[in-house]
Amino acid sequence: MATPDVQYLSSGDTALTVQFGTVIERELNSRIVALGHSIAQAAIAGVSETLPTYRSLLVNYDPLVVTRDELVAQLQPLIESPPEAGDAAPAHWQIPVCFDSDLAPDLAHVAAASGLDENEVIKAMLEVTHHVYMLGFAPGQPYMGDLPPALNIPRRENPVARVEKGSVVTATGLTIIYAVPNPTGWHVVGRTPVEIFNLAREEAILFKPGDKVRLSRIERDEFDELTAQVDDGSFDMTRLRQP
Amino acid sequence: MSAGLEVISPGLMTSVQDRGRFGYQALGISVSGALDTDSFDIANALVGNESGNKVGTGALEIRMLGPTLKVTADSVTVALAGTATAIEVVAPEREVISACRSVTLLKGQVFRVGAVSDSAVCYLAVHGGFDLPPIYGSQSTCMSAGFGGFHGRILEKGDCLPLRQPVSGSSSQRILRRPPDPDNSPFIRVVAGPQDDYFSTAGIKTFFETGYTVSQAVNRMGMRLEGAAVTHEKGYNIASDGIVRGAIQVPGNGLPIILMADCQTTGGYPKIATVISSDMPKLGRMMPGADIRFKAVSVGEAEAVARERHERQAALIGAIERFSGSVEQLEHLLMTQNLISGVTAG
User: Fold this and answer.
1) At the fourth CATH level, which superfamily is domain B187-303?
2) Are A11 and B240 within 8 A, CB to CB?
């Protein structure tokens, strides 16, 4: 891949948005995640942390230690050099999801908006190997894609005030699993009993950017059983990992 | 119940905050932390807490109306900063302790911080800090995700905040005789971007040339402004990207929202400008109804301001003096500065 044509956008005096493009694209995203690793390894004085998103890397820094111009000069060679492998290889996950109507209140709307029927929507979501583009908005919350073009439907006009944790939501051809209860502007099409964020767990956060996620369909009785296991701490997290 | 401070009345919205939770934004973890880090640092310095590390020592962030607390430890040294409001000891005997000085309170004493009218936030620090587990390296309360601080939430009646040092070893007190004058000007300096190209020329002009008012909808996540709508040119949806504290996003209705300490890590609205780091404490102090005028500066100017602020803050903390703690010596100290008599205005 050719050296991407990046833009350095100022996010105030403490962060730089290194923008690789304006579209959501896996290879671009992988470059961004890799640049985050390169910056961490380079240990640039004053850089406190980086935050990869779909198409840009937010680089946070202390302006008392490094100025914007000095930082850009140190980032440029890292961007031009070939991407390094990350800290860890991407993990593969299989996440159980129940699509019963009370857990999927917007499935009918998504079907209507996409021109598919409800079973076709579910089938499409099950067939995709999702790529975790980024974690954001809430702890460990994955933004994943890509669904087939038919499911590239707009977000809600009016957000809803609260969806439960574990809600599987979609819009614009992407999928999110909610980490904690929050408002949403997306469409709720299912729910997983799995807690993707739980501080009581050794690995509080399940996913990392670059991971691959498949959804698997479970029926209501299994959803209820797994929910009970999650609640009493007996749920076997290792069953989520795919070889 | 471990020894510390028992919450008799929690105040409006009192939470434990330090300087923030750094290094985990890539996981979706918000930074959180004190809204007014300048006053937070002064409060901690007044009780002798080291400020050597980036995270600092957790203190109580008080919003509008403070808590009433009972000392259940043997003793505790506390100080209030960021306001001219005093600490009132209400039991067993009444006493008034001005802000910006430390005081050691004994087991059984009940004290409160009443209505705060000169700032949206102020800070009550305790010597040694609270004995609360750091989560991702910080004691800051992240209310949106429900962790950190005291059980991930604002204080409630009956809570008992445990102290790391349930006996105050200090025999002397500290005072900052000349607290910084509050900056009541409406000007907030911003660096344009990162998505100022999403707005029309008229929209940019509106943003910089008309005034805004802080609405009632202000909390630790964000501050909604009232005023003229800013017009977009390229729509109001972007592929979500990273957000910093101080980012000013403009949703579809054109009314700017300034993102504050507890803001989410990523967002999908274009950001017209970003408040410079040096003006974030001032912004954090602004109350609903306050006027705001945005002033554009370059990154270079913002960096120079950051260096000046750092030196000013270091000088302020360096000006904190020790005294024996006696009323006589305190009065003498204050008289020499003419702060009590009000003869000079500095």
Assistant:
1) Cyclophilin-like (2.40.100.10)
2) no
